[in-house]
Write a structure and sequence with these properties.
346 residues, alpha+beta, Glutamine Phosphoribosylpyrophosphate, subunit 1, domain 1, 8-stranded mixed sheet, 4-stranded antiparallel sheet, globular, binds N-hydroxy-L-asparagine, Peptidase_T2, N(4)-(Beta-N-acetylglucosaminyl)-L-asparaginase, Ntn_hydrolases_N, signal, TAT_signal
Length: 346
Amino acid sequence: MPSRRDFLKTSMLAAGALAAPRFAAATAVPSKGALPGAEGARVISTWDFGVPANRAAWTVLARGGNALDAVEQGAQVPESDLANHSVGKGGYPDRDGHVTLDASIMDGDGRCGAVACLENIAHPIRVARRVMEATPHVLLVGDGALQFAREQGFHEENLLTPEAEKAWHEWLRSAKHRPVANSENADYHRSLRGGHDNHDTIGMLAVDAHGHLAGACTTSGMAWKMHGRVGDSPIIGAGLYVDGEVGGATSTGVGEEVIRNAGSFLVVELMRQGRSPQEACEEAVRRIVKKRPDGAKEMQVGFLALRRDGAVGAHAIQRGFTYAVCDATKQDGLFASPSVYATSFS
Ligand code: SD4
């Protein structure tokens, strides 16, 4: 894992290096089976914890495995990390003390599956894939999602770790129970993020050596959210969208703003119209900021995009959004996204 200083150094080069198509033949899309082994494969994901997640995904891509298996594998790394309070087991609970998880997975061919407000299952991304493959549906929520997971043989366990429970009790002491829509100040948004700013949703996008694309997104959502609240992460087109003809996009930050703008779908459609991944992410962020000129100063939303040729884009409202890039040349790349504002919640 690179140190923060290494990453900051690297990030000086990042925006230019990755915003521009990295692969020599940026517009030449590899045809199926044309590239041996891992050549041409790349996986990217949100935040610092994307580095170990990418490495897990890379174990699949490096042996010529497919992008869908890779992102499912990679997303499980932060889901298992108990020190990570925003994804999977160990995630901070809602205001009533329930850890409720949201996840989605999408293949470049348009197949997708998702779960929302799922309790007691440590790997919601695996359940999302099962929804995609074993049901005629796209999204299962709450008790129905849990019932399905049980039927599929998933193990049930308590996801509220002692550390997360302690943080919840501390929050309860000063908690103001009020709907998110009424609350637009920075302190409140910071509290929604559990006071941890470089720990957030993991969104992961991969292109495999056969030129096939897939994406995954998994989160425990905003800390101390209202019970039943669902963010952007399990909403196809909001927190995640992948189109094998174009590329994929994923988001992190205040999910309500991403849903309002169909954020990831927007990024992919902009790429389809010819914008670079970087330009597409910038435009999606711009739309959010334009609609919420005051609120945007105090909230974070970040988009990450991968074009089918491997070109990467990233943009965020606030400074501090990092993303990890892994390919045959470097497995642990970590970069800082450009942002609209220079402020950081970190
Ligand atoms: C959500 N985008 O549920 C996700 C994760 C999050 O601050 O809470 N980010 O809105």
